[in-house]
Design brief:
about 1150 residues, alpha+beta, Beta-galactosidase, Chain A, domain 5, Glycosyltransferase, Maltose phosphorylase, domain 3, 11-stranded antiparallel beta sheet, 7-stranded mixed beta sheet, 33 helices, about 25% strand, carbohydrate binding
Length: about 1150
């Protein structure tokens, strides 16, 4: 006889689904229950089976001659020995399987956010200062998803038959779980059970299940469906007491409810069920059993079609069979019998079933909790909402849920092309991140999700470090709720600081559920918690541009938590030290000057000082109130500034790395490679903590962690050296390490290593690589893996307020696409093997453009819904110019008309006693050349007005001097600009963006004293130029405007460029000398009526920038320099030019431009 391996669960991860194609066995049972769990942040429902028995019998092998079913006899390998299986024996009229029992039990559970218990901790010490005296943890809610089926008196479980197939699917697109199981009784009856679950993302307190039964080898056989709400786990565990139970039923529908209250925390929870069961006949033969036996053996096809972010999501992507084919339907509702039992409530439906009969149970479950509400009010609310859901029906509930999910995926979806399992894994991770939180600021974010008991539903530091920044990009409302939870629980943090004898400030707990402290290894030594919460707030403000949160408690949070550093830290030798603290790395205990803590505290202090300065200047009254509320003075801010400047940051010159802490480099070395060969367990499970603390080993390399969180603070050389030093010293007991390594390896260009760790981080839950997925998800790793794609391979950074990207492709990934936010704008980034496409898909009201930077400072001005593309790998080209300098009037369209209107209004007011009109001829003759004093005096003489004295530069507009008159004109000019705005020449900003992408220096000059003011009025222009000079700068440096070109020459030199390699753009060359213009390599004239001229350098006449590119300019300069023997060009420069615009050749330009040489 052949040996058959122990049955294994097969989890297939498709691009839009997670599918299980065989029965789970052993330790896979709780793991798969976690993977197929559902949640909406309020209700968490594990992926257990509805049937009360979770241990299945397996009958692998051939066909039994007596029953026509699979043989009950085979050899099964069990722990190294072969155990012969035989037909199950019948003992006391119950079939007992003697060959295979899976020992592991299901971790069945339903959870409700905020339904937690509190218990006191017994301490042997006589004091409790700085130690937790209680702990909080989530408890299971009453289980309202129990459904048992009895056919001809036989309970559908493994004792009375066998489950020979199960297929289960989690639809990532819709967030629905579907299950199909085939069962055969020992008497030959066959049942197919198809179940669909949904936890509504619209009605947060409602979950529902549709349970469909079909049968074969039956004829008018009695069938009984028992639906239960079970409270036994909570009562027997001593977590809660049942306060009230009620039942109600009519001829079609049953309603029941159980209301419980936790014993210590006094949390109230009501669980209400509205259910109905119907029976109908199908005209066509039931096809549920076709191919059923081979479901777990065949290679089931999974739809791997990837959907891009821009593709609308279909309402129903499922290819999973939900019910038998029905062409006509006559429905009969079964009468319910609802009774109260010892374990809770039972509702029974009884009927007969034949081969063409379908029985369908719809069960609507409402969970409602409130700490302060009266039981009567809670009962009324729960009944009303649950009955309303049941009245609306299954179709309405599903459709509104799917619409909500489509809206979520329109922003959250990530497209990966190349490996279907990675595509599905990242979508699975994002779905679980969404499912864990309900956007309520009342409770913490469960670090391991709302569908498991790992860590008791507590929030740890990883939420602030990774999940809040992720949510800021994908769902800002959730990120805001997470931060407002911190603001709301600030008083708890103040109590913890006071408990540690700190007179002022606040200290966040390492773990929390309601804001209070929970037990940790070293309670209240975690100053780094303050730094990561401040970091989360900083990221949120930058990403969403929501500054209101600072005025609504965020500023108080920053100041109060920053104050702890001053109270805790010490000065030694003029340097600020933070001693006796713990960092994120639990393998290094309590240390002095933890590098992560010090660097992040420095960041916290500096940002706090910026916010304080802004509040002091803009809201002085509110600032004074805030200081009093935080028990601070201005002197404290001075101490903060000094501490930030003199923060102790240790550097090891021998290894050229930053030590984890002050003692790390003096510890013993440990060969982790040998340790991994000896044991597969975590170090903390094998060694005493004091053994670990004596060695150079990291649980999470917090030096590398801070480099991922503050990437602009460290150079690539520093990242590379520290990464290669700390990776061998990291035990990788935390899956979070893979995401950290992936981000940093991608940053230094080691794509192979980055891809390896990126893959491991993505699949940590799907493959249960950490070995504990059965207890819950690793949501911080899921968020960090998204950051590995966006920050690592996408190269996303924020430098000086500008969003930068430096994308690369992971190995075996041919393209990817993601969404990210900056200053409230949603940017879609699509990376292929040749191109990168940026698209501004959403923006705050009134914002239509966003400036971003690609690669090495190549700036792109994004306009809403107008994608811009650049090459991923640029072609190297040789150019004959390094810079282009624009006259301001060549970019701003028809600015002379604004000057004319301002002078006309000013002078006509001055000449109000006489008939005077400033014509365009007078303006052009006397005032259009930038020297108004002489022109004004000529106008006064012409119209017999006394000549005004020159006056002083400080004269106001009411002063009767030339300076006063010019000031009056200036005010009118600026008022008109503010009122009407500036108009720019066609294609100007697109051309400027192209120049920046091509690494060409861009300058701008103006002979007007208004120049800089005008540039500030146009942020697009301000961010598109490297250097700007106006008349005020020219007067200070004694530069000449006309006939010389001193402004252009000085601007070129200030950008470290030669005039011979600079192109100038003018709004007319009138007034400039020929010799001055010939100092440059090319002159472009954009005036309306360009004059005829004959220069020795190339010239181009045009009135639009829309068709000019770097390539065409280079062709013009190159052809002319070749004709002149390259006598004026100097050495050529090799740069990279992205093909982000369609290039036109010099010949093409000749058709639309007047090309003169």
């Amino acid at each position: 006889m052949s040996t058959v391996d122990k049955p294994r669960s097969k989890i297939q991860c498709g691009s839009w689904e997670l599918r299980e194609t065989s029965l789970a066995a052993g330790e896979e049972i709780p793991v798969n229950e976690t993977l197929f769990s559902l949640s909406n942040g309020v209700i968490g429902l594990r992926g257990f089976t509805e049937e009360s028995e979770h241990v299945f019998n397996y009958y692998p092998g051939g066909t039994d001659s007596t029953t026509g079913c699979e043989s009950r006899s085979s050899n099964i390998s069990n722990g190294g020995r072969s155990t012969k299986t035989s037909h199950p024996a019948k003992v006391d009229n119950v079939y007992v399987d003697s060959e295979l029992r899976i020992p592991e039990k299901s971790l069945r559970g339903t959870f409700f956010a905020g339904f937690y218990e509190r218990r006191l901790l017994n301490r042997s010490r006589i004091f409790s200062v700085g130690l937790c005296t209680k702990e909080c943890f989530l408890v299971k809610a009453p289980d309202a998803f129990c459904i048992d089926v009895f056919i001809a008196g036989e309970h559908v479980n493994s004792s009375s038959g066998r489950f020979f197939s199960q297929t289960r699917k989690l639809d990532l697109r819709t967030g629905e779980m579907r299950r199909r199981v085939l069962w055969e009784s020992h008497s030959g009856k066959e049942l197919a059970i198809e179940c669909t679950r949904i936890v509504s993302s619209v009605r947060k307190n409602i979950a529902a299940v549709k349970y469909t039964i079909t049968a074969r080898n039956v004829n008018n056989t009695d069938i009984r469906i028992v639906s239960r709400t079970d409270t036994s786990d909570g009562r027997m565990g001593g977590f809660y007491d049942v306060e009230n139970v009620f039942t109600s039923s009519d001829i079609q529908e049953a309603t029941s409810g159980v209301f419980v209250r936790t014993r210590n925390s006094c949390r109230h929870l009501g669980v209400v069920v509205a259910e109905r069961c119907s029976s109908f006949q199908s005209v066509e033969q039931n096809r549920s059993f076709e191919g059923a036996v081979s479901l777990d053996k065949s290679n089931t096809s999974i739809n791997e079609e990837s959907t891009h972010l821009s593709t609308p999501l279909a309402n129903n992507s499922s290819n999973f069979p939900l019910s038998p084919v029905v062409t006509a339907r006559s429905t009969t509702f079964l009468s319910p019998k609802c009774v109260e039992v010892d374990s809770g409530v039972e509702t029974t439906f009884t009927s007969c079933i034949s081969e063409k009969t379908c029985i369908e149970l719809e069960k609507y479950v409402g969970l409602f909790g409130d700490e302060s509400a009266q039981q009567e009010d809670l009962t009324d609310l729960a009944l009303q909402k649950t009955r309303m859901a049941a009245k609306d029906g299954w179709v309405v509930l599903v459709e509104e849920h799917r619409r909500k999910m489509n809206a979520f995926w329109s922003v959250a979806n990530v497209h990966l092309k190349g490996i279907a399992s990675l595509q599905g894994a990242i979508r699975f991770n994002m779905l679980e991140l969404k499912a864990a939180y309900n956007r309520s600021s009342c409770f913490a974010y469960p670090t391991h999700g709302l569908t498991g008991e790992m860590l008791g539903g507590l929030q740890q530091w990883e939420v602030d470090a990774f999940i809040t920044p992720y949510m800021s990009h994908i769902h800002p409302e959730s990120a805001s709720a997470l931060l407002r939870f911190r603001i709301k629980t600030l008083n708890y943090a103040k109590e913890i600081a006071a408990d540690l004898d700190l007179p002022r400030g606040a200290l966040w707990p390492h773990r929390t559920l309601d804001g209070s402290d929970n037990p940790s290894t070293h309670c209240a030594a975690f100053l780094f918690m303050n730094t990561v919460v401040a970091y989360a707030l900083h990221q949120y403000v930058i990403i969403t541009n929501d500054n209101n949160i600072l005025l609504e408690g965020g500023a108080e949070l920053l100041l109060t938590t920053a104050l702890v550093y001053i109270e805790w830290g010490t000065w030694d030798g003029g340097v600020f030290h933070i001693r006796s603290v713990s960092g994120p790395d639990i393998y290094n205990g309590v240390v002095d000057n933890n590098f992560f803590t010090n660097v992040m505290a420095q960041h916290h202090l500096r940002w706090t000082l910026q916010i304080a300065g802004s509040l002091r200047e803009n809201n002085p009254d509110q600032w004074a109130q805030l200081l009093a509320k935080c028990n601070m003075t201005e002197e404290d801010l001075t101490h903060m500034e000094k501490a930030a400047q003199q923060m102790f940051l240790l550097f090891d010159g021998k290894h050229r790395v930053y030590p984890v802490d002050q003692a790390f480099m003096s510890k013993k070395k440990w060969n982790l490679h040998d340790l991994r060969d000896k044991t597969k367990k975590n170090l903390i499970a094998e060694f005493h903590p004091n053994v670990i603390y004596r060695h150079q080993v990291c649980h999470i390399p917090d030096v590398l962690l801070v480099m991922t969180m503050l990437p602009t603070k460290f150079t690539m050389d520093e990242v590379k050296t520290n990464l290669h030093f700390y990776e061998p010293k990291t035990a990788v007991d935390s899956p979070l390490c893979h995401a950290i390594f992936a981000i940093l390896y991608a940053a230094i260009g080691q794509t192979d290593e980055a891809t390896k760790h990126f893959r491991r981080g993505l699949l940590v839950d799907v493959q249960n690589s950490a070995g504990n997925t059965g207890g819950g998800f690793h949501l911080s790793t899921a968020a960090a893996s998204w950051q590995a794609l966006v920050h690592g391979f996408g190269g996303m950074r924020v430098l000086h307020g500008v969003l930068h990207f430096n994308p690369t492709l992971p190995d075996n990934i041919t393209e990817y696409e993601f969404n990210a936010r900056h200053r409230g704008c949603l940017v879609r980034v699509s990376v292929t093997q040749k191109l990168v496409i940026y698209n501004l898909v959403d923006s705050p009201r009134g914002v239509e453009q966003l400036l971003i930077s690609h690669k090495q400072g190549q700036r792109i001005l994004l306009q809403k819904d107008k994608p811009e593309s650049v090459r991923l790998f640029h072609d190297a080209r040789v150019l004959d110019f390094d810079a282009i300098i624009f006259e301001l009037d060549s970019i701003v369209d028809n600015i002379e008309s604004i000057h004319y209107c301002a002078w006309k209004e000013t002078l006509e007011e001055y000449f109000k006693m006489t008939e005077f009109t400033l014509t365009k001829e007078l303006y052009l003759a006397y005032l259009s050349h930038g020297k108004p004093f002489a022109g004004l005096n000529e106008i006064f003489k012409k119209y017999n007005k006394p000549v005004l004295p020159t006056g002083d530069n400080d004269d106001g507009e009411e002063t009767k001097t030339l300076y006063g008159l010019c000031q009056a004109k200036l005010e009118k000019f600026r008022a008109k600009v503010k009122r009407d705005g500036l108009k720019f020449r066609e294609g100007a900003f697109k051309f400027l963006s192209h120049l920046r992408q091509s690494d060409i220096c861009v300058g701008c000059v103006s002979g007007s004293r208004n120049g800089k003011w005008l540039v500030k009025e146009s942020p697009q222009l301000n961010m598109s130029v490297d250097k700007f000079l106006d008349n005020l700068d020219g007067e200070e440096m004694m530069l000449r405007w006309r006939p010389e070109t001193d402004y252009f020459s000085f601007c070129s030199r200030s950008m470290d460029c030669s005039s011979k390699r600079t192109i100038i753009v003018l709004d007319g060359i009138d007034g400039f000398s020929k010799s001055a213009l010939e100092k440059f390599c090319m002159v472009i004239d954009v005036s309306e009526n360009p004059a005829e001229y004959n220069l020795s350098v190339p010239t181009l006449k045009t009135q639009s920038f829309k068709d000019i590119t770097v390539t065409t300019l280079d062709e013009i300069t190159t052809s002319e320099l070749t004709r002149l023997g390259n006598s004026a060009g100097g050495l050529k420069r090799k740069i990279t030019v992205p093909d982000s615009f369609n290039s036109a050749s010099a010949g093409d330009l000749a058709e639309s431009f007047s090309l003169a040489t």
